[in-house]
Structures are given as C-alpha cells and as structure tokens.
Amino acid sequence: MSTTQFKRIGIGVAFSPNLKANIYEAARLALFMKSELVLIHVGEEDDKKKAIIGEHLSALKKDQLISKVVFLPGNPVEVILLSIQNNAIDLMVLGALKQESFFKYYLGSIAREITRKATCSVLLLINPSVERVPCNHIVVNGLKDPKTQDTIRLAFYVSHKLKASKITVVEEVAQEEVNVKVDDDKTLRQSTIIRERLMHREKQRVNKLLQEVPLEHSKDITIKSQPIFGKRGYSIGHYAQVVRADLLVMNAPPKTSFWDRLFPHDIEHILGELPTDVLIIR
Amino acid sequence: MKQKNNIVRTIASIPRNLFSGLVVSLIALPLSLGLAMACDAPPIAGVITSIVGGVLVAIFGGSFVTISGPGKGLVGVVLVAVSTLGLTSTYAAIICSGLLLLVLGFLRLGKLADYFPSSAIQGVLAAIGLIILGKQFHIMLGNKILRDNTVDYLIAIPETIITAFQLSDTGQRNAAIVGVLSLAIMVFYSKIRNKYLQLIPAPMWVVICSVGFSYYCEFILKIPNPISPKYMMPSIPSLSEVINTLPEPNFEKIYTLEFIGSVVALALIASIESLLSIKAVDKLDPKKRRSNVNKDIKALGLSTVVSGFLGGLNVVTVIAPSSVNISNGGSNRFGNFFHASFLVLFILLFSTELPRIPLSALMAILVYTGYKLAAPEMIKRVFLIGKEQIIIFLSTLFVTLKVGLISGILAGLLATFLIHIFINKSIALFIKNIIKPNILMYKEENGNYFISVKHFCSFLNFNNLKNKLSVIPEQNDVIIDFSMCEFVDHSVMENLNDYQELFHKKGGNIEIIGMDMLDAKSEHPFALRRLLPIPGLMNNSKTKRQKDLELVALSFNLNYKPERQTSASHLENFMFFKTKKIEYTYNHLSHENSGSSLFDITFSEGEFIAKEVVRSTMLYVKLRKKIPQFALIKEGLLERFYALTRQKDINIPNQNDFSKRFYLNGEKQKEIQFFFNADIVRFFESNAYYHVESNGEALIIFNKERVASVKETKLLLDFGSRLKAKIEEQ
C-alpha cells in the first residue's frame, strides 16, 4: 500500500483572514500525502484573486506542491459538491468556526451541509495555522460497523504519513448493551461482570481489526485500545478532548434525515461541537 | 449449601428483628394514630396503613431495614383531599395513587425525586412541617379551631398561646397542661441519656404517661378524668369491627380535576418521601446494602392499593421508625413484618385502652414532628449553602402553603432554573446542552474509573451522571473531572457527597477534580459553582480538594499555600518546559528548608489560536548533589512531550528490560549511563511509572496531564521522597 490513498485534496478558498493559514494547512497535508491540491473558489475568476492565491502558493512551490485553482460561481454548497465530483477529489478540507470566549469550535452551516452531503472524505480543521502544529496523538473509532475496518486502516495510513506517535482505538460500549439494570448489589455484580465481558469482547474485535493493518503503517506507533462508556458517536469526541488528541478519525454517518438533525446522534453531535480536528472517512 | 446457610442465617436473625419490631411498633402506634387524625381520617386508618405496609412491603419490597407506614408528608395532601373530595372519594384517590406508584415502579421512574432540586424538596418538606404544626398546635393547647387554610392556622398561633393562659374551663385547661407536658417529653427525651429510659421511644412515653395518669385518676384518686372528653381520643373500633365496616371507596369523582390533582400529589409526595427515607436509611444500614428502589416503590404502590380498600392511607417508607429499627438491631425485612404483627396485637389487646389517651398529648407528638421538619436550623443550613438557595427554599415553601403541593414543587423547579440562568447570565448554556450526553466514563489503565463532565451539571441532567456512577462497584476508585464543566449546582454537589460517603464506606473513593477553577457562591461544600469569567482570578473559598491538600500538607509536615504564583524561574531550565509557557503555579505544598515543593501548574503550548492550556500536578525535588541532566519517559510518549527536542534514546548496558520500557535521553550519555546503576534502575522498574526529569540539580516528577487527585498527590510525594533518598545515598 505504498500508493497514495488521497490522490486529490480539495479546499474551499474564501478571502477571509484565515486564508493563508487554510492554504498552508491544506498544502502541508498534500505534501505529506503526496497528493495534488485543488483550491476551489466560489465566485468569478479575476486577476486580483488569482494574484493573492498565487502569492501564497508560490511560497510553497519550492516543496514541489502540485496544485490547481478552480473558480466557479454559484451556491457555495452546490459549487463545492460539484467540484468534488468534477475534479475527483478524495479529501475535502473544511475550516471550523470558533465560539466566542470559551475555546469551543463548531461548524458553520455551509461546512456542515457539505460534510453531510459530500461523497469523499472530509477533514474539519479547528485552528488552521501557518506554522505546523505536530500531529502526535490520533484517536479513531472502533465502532462495530462494516466501515470501521477501512476507517482504522486509513487512520493508520494517515498517522504514518503525518508521523504521529500514538493512536488510540476507542470502542464505545453502550449502556443499553449491558442488559442488566442496576438496582441493588446483586444486579450491580451481574452488570459489572457483563460489562467486563463486553469490554473484553470489544478489545478482541478491535485487535482483529488491528491485525489487518499493514505492518509498515503500524510498526512505529504506540497503539492503545480504550473502551469507553457513553453515547455512541458523541462520547468519542469528549474522549478526544479529554486526552487532548490532535486528530479524531471517524466513520462517515449513514444518510441523515430531518429527524436526525432534530434529535442529533452520532456525527451530528460532533459537528456541533468540534473537540479537535476531525477526519471523516468515506 | 449456600442456600442452606442463608436459611440458617435468616432464622438466626429472627429474635433480634422480633425485638426491633416491638420497639418500632411502640413508636409507630402513636405516630399512626396521630397522623391519621391530623389528616381528618379516623385514627384507626393510620394503624391499618402501618399493618398493611408492614406485611406487604416486607414480602415484596426491595429494601432491607426500612419500615413502612403512613407518612408525615402526606398529611398536607390527604387533608386537602378529605376536605374537597370527602373521605370515601379520598380512599378512591389513595387507591389510584397506589396504582400510579405501581406504574412508576414498573417504568423504573422510582427515582423521580432525583429530578427535583434539593432546596425545593427541603422547601416542600418544611411547608408540610408547618401544615402539621399549624393545625395541631391549637389542639395541643386545648383550643380546637377551624380555619380555611394552613396559613390562617399559623397566624392564629399567638392568639391560641394567649388564650391558653386564660382558659376558664378546667377540662380544657388540663388538656393544655397535658399537651405542654407531652411536648416537653418529646423535646427533652433526647437530652436524657439513660439506657432504660431510651428503651422506649419518646412518643410511647407520652402514651404510657397519659394512659397511666388516666388509670391513676380512676383507681387511686377515684375521680373522673379531669381532661375534657372533647380532648380525648375517640374510641377505636375493634379488629372485627374494622373488617365488618370496610369503607366503600367512591370512584364517582374520578374525572374531576380535584381528584386527579390529589392522585398525582399523593403519588408524587409518597415517592419523594419514600425515596428520601430509603436513601437516608441505606446510609445507616450497618451491612451497607443497596436498596432496590424500584422494587420498593412497586411494593409501596401495591400496599397503598390494598390499604386504600381496607380504609387505610398511603403507605410510604417512614424515616423515624426505620432509624429506630436499625438502632435496635433490625437487620432484615422481618423487622418491618414484626412491627406490623405487634400493631395487630396491640389493637386486639388494647383497643379499649387507647381512648384514654388525651388528644392534646397525641398532637404534641405531631407538633414536635412538624417543628423538626421546619426547624430554624433547616433554614440556617440552606442559607449557609448560598443566598440563592434561600430564594428557592422560601418560594417553594410559600407556594406550597398558599396554593398546594404540586404548585409548590413546580414553583421550586422554576425558581431554581431561573436562578441558574441568572447566575450564568445565559440560557443558551442550558438549552443547547440539555439533551447532550455530557458524561464520559472510561477505565484508566490502572483500574481507576475516570468520569469527565462537560457543559453543565445540575438537577436537570444529574441523572446522566448518576446512571454512570451507579454502575461502578463501590470498592473502586473514581475520579470525576469537572474541568470541562461551566456550571455545577447545589443538588449535584449534595448528591455527589452522598455518593462519596457510600464509596468511602465500602472501601472505594470518589475524588472530585477540576473544581478549582469554578467560583463557589459560599464557603459551604455543597455550594453551586460556576466557571470564573476571567480564568485565573482565584476566589476566596477553598474547594474540597484544596481543603484535602491542606490536610495532606499537615500529615506530611509541609506548608500549604493555595495562592497562585506567576514566577516559576526554577522550572524554566527543564527540557520539558522548553516548548511550553508556564502560566502560573498554585496549590503549593512546600518543605521549608529543602526547597522541594509540590504544586498544581497551568502551562500552555503554542500561542494564540493554536494555544492549548494544560493543567497538571508536579513535584519539584531539589537535590543536595549534582547529577547529570536527563529525562526519563515511558516508551512511546516521547514525541508527545518533546516534540521539538527529539534526541536519541540512551540504552543502559545490561539492562535490556529497562531500556525497552523507558525512553531515556540527555546530552551526556556516558555520565547518564554511569548514573543509572543497577540500584537506580531497580528502583524505577519496581515503582509505578512517573515522568522524571533532571536539570542537574533538581528533579521534576509527574505522571498525568491533568491535576492529580489527593490520593495521587500522596503517592507522588511518597515516590519523590524515596527517589530523593535513593539518589542522595549513591
């Protein structure tokens, strides 16, 4: 698996104060992954814009960055989704917004919609910076889901490319799975035994998944598997925040409907409250 | 075999439970009679309630040492029901509330009371205390009056006291004297420590004295009882009469608003009172068993239905008799059962003697009970927790008195919520996060449970935290981290304190961390806490952890200083801090002359938008000799700590295992290899993992990128002093 997983990385370019940081983050990523960078701007092509983007890119040219710029006017969500298809982009980079005062990040409505509808993987960045902040600790979900296998494999691929030192596979044990309701000492004992058994089972399942990961990607990394108790899809974000992970890798959610947004679950929680950088694998 | 053992043990426990059941029945009898009369129900109704509850809850219940019977909390509700619906419809309402409780039990909603803020519940209980006290006070002083509502009864109290001194009717005056004497017995009983006197509970002394007095008059003085017959207990029907004249519950008003209101209020207050009692009793249980609350609620519901059909009142778990049960050696549900059996026996044998009890004496017992519920100490206690709690408490109290119980509880809920919004100056914090699963729990590698709480934690969502806590076996160590939480309310603090006691009793430990940054509203440990708007502005009131650290300092003979210090020049020449900025240190524990100290530290990595703030607890050890500079880290964590100063791992010859487990780095390889001799290596191998770094003349030691719990702090101190000794003896 020496060939690159993400052939083309896309990024939306808007002329905001974050422009430089965004471009630098995406460019660095493209260099690490040995992929082509596609900069998408929603709007008419004009020389002034071209010049600004060109200026930022020229600083990166020396690293042999392959890049192209796409200008397309229209509805931002539609334009970006269309460009993803037209340019065969494998990974779309989106920036998050920061909530006032407390260090909290959330995703704006446009980015949110793109995340839901995109057909490629999506990387959500909470604080893009011009200088590189090293990515050391990656947390990846180990949900019982057919997609998990791929997600874990890609998480290792990414951590190998970004030279991360530690990866934690998090299995979420839902309280509902422990069928015994704790009422008194007896049921407490029963539920503790069942919980330990579930944790063991989950650990074994994850170990099996880990065996599928190519040795080349896993040999230099500390691997930890951690069962947590909480709400599926939400608590993993909480965990990533507690252990101060640098990147959280997650499965893509199944198609969401109106009801899912009203009663958020899985990934919707994380979009509303980004714990760290999040990579959603499709 | 195990089964057989259990049976033997159960049989062996019968005699002591028989005894405790007897003592309990002595207190339950006068209380049952009095409470039933306070409800305007026939006195026997109270005894029926106790008997039915005692038998059925003993068989079907899920708790161990509780006693069931008519509750004082119900007085206010039943009184209203009797006056608006009439007695027969009240029985119907009682039956329906029993069914409602059964449903709640099956839906596992027995913990309903957990959703109410503590101060609101205190307010409701105080209001009930005032209702009981207000009405019975007049009868106690021989002045039967009728008023429209409870507030009027309370207002009339001074008037009654004045008239008590001017009573012209001797019968009435004697009743008042007996009432005051009985109240004196109730008040001073607990002050007299005599083991024979204490054998019989105070209410029974009141009964014994008054019945004895009546016999004294009849047989020795040969005069009729000097107390007016109007102030004597009405006659009690014999058991056969009770069975023959069962009341017919009247279900005609079932669809009226008053009826439904009564049913809901009865069920609500029954579950709240039972839950509070069960919780309090579980704390007293010497065997530390955990009661099955839902099973108990089901049993209480069932017995309430039966009791309603037999002409009794709502069955709830009663606190006073339960505690008497425990202190007299009750160890299982036989205690409850025997208390019911003795009540049957009493009614069979002494039902003709009971009318010898003066009403004023019985009501003195209730006045004392009511006073205990609404005592000024209660208000003082609430006030100490915080001024805002007084607002909640008083608004609940007044609405309950003026309008009713359900309105009172709703008012309490609303007041609490509004105050929380006001204190945080944000409604969004609650609305946005209320349905989020804000609790994360996982087991750390060393077997500790770690729970992190986000956003806010108040009565609204305490259930989330409770659900997690209740599945942890109490022998474990738990760390609850509130550092991501912006607001913690008083109900949560109080409930957590209960959990801490519970864990402590069973050998576990709950440690609360991350509170140091939250501003408390008062010095009280249960005070609500809110994130400081300007982080770092330390407030005056110490947190539990800070108080514990103070104790640690005392036991290790160290000085404790909670104030923060911004200068940390002695730390800056450590490799670890090369890429980090020390914001400040606080909670210092220092040794006077050695220069070593332990402290919480806040440092940041990166700047501006990439800034990450980290808190940790570190130990700084000043050494008396020079050693090489080095850093010793667990394999795999190196990059995390030393992102920029990546250096080679130094291997110690002939210590392969050590070299594999630890990452050792430093510039002077030879000196380091010499320093790490077999003795030092063995020390590190045989102790728990800590990150240790030397700058040549001092060490810093820590192990987590979060503030350490008090237990961990002690371990850290111990590790540090042993390491220092080891190095200095080289």
Description:
The complex is a heterodimer of chains A (282) and B (730). Chain A is an alpha/beta fold and 282 residues long. Chain A has two domains: 1-133, HUPs (Rossmann fold, 3-Layer(aba) Sandwich); 134-247, Rossmann fold, CATH 3.40.50.620. Chain A is 41% helix and 23% strand. Chain A has helices at 19-33, 47-61, 76-86, 109-117, 148-162, 185-211, 215-218, 235-242, 258-262, 266-272, and strands at residues 8-12, 36-42, 67-72, 91-95, 97-99, 104-106, 121-125, 137-141, 166-173, 222-229, 247-251, 277-281. Chain A has a ten-stranded mixed sheet with strand order 3-2-1-4-7-12-11-8-9-10, with helices on both faces. Chain A has a two-stranded antiparallel sheet with strand order 5-6. The longest helix of chain A has 27 residues, at 185-211. The radius of gyration of chain A is 20 Å and the shape is elongated. Chain A starts with 7 loop residues before the first strand and ends with a strand. With 730 residues, chain B is of the alpha+beta class. Chain B folds into four domains: 2-384, no CATH class; 391-424, no CATH class; 431-541, STAS domain (Transcription Regulator spoIIAA), CATH 3.30.750.24; 555-729, no CATH class. Helix content of chain B is 54%, strand content 13%. In chain B, helix 3 (43-60) runs antiparallel to helix 13 (293-309), helix 4 packs antiparallel against helix 12 and helix 17 (376-385) packs across helix 18 (387-402). The longest helix of chain B is centred in the middle third of the chain and has 28 residues, at 257-284. The radius of gyration of chain B is 32 Å and the shape is elongated. Strand 10 (222-229) of chain A pairs antiparallel with strand 3 (439-443) of chain B.
Count of DSSP-assigned helices of chain B: 29
Using the alpha-carbon principal axes, give the shape of chain A. Answer: elongated
Query: What oligomerization state is this entry in?
Result: heterodimer
Question: What's the rounded overall pLDDT mean of chain A?
Answer: 77
The CATH level-2 architecture of the largest domain in chain A is identified as 3-Layer(aba) Sandwich
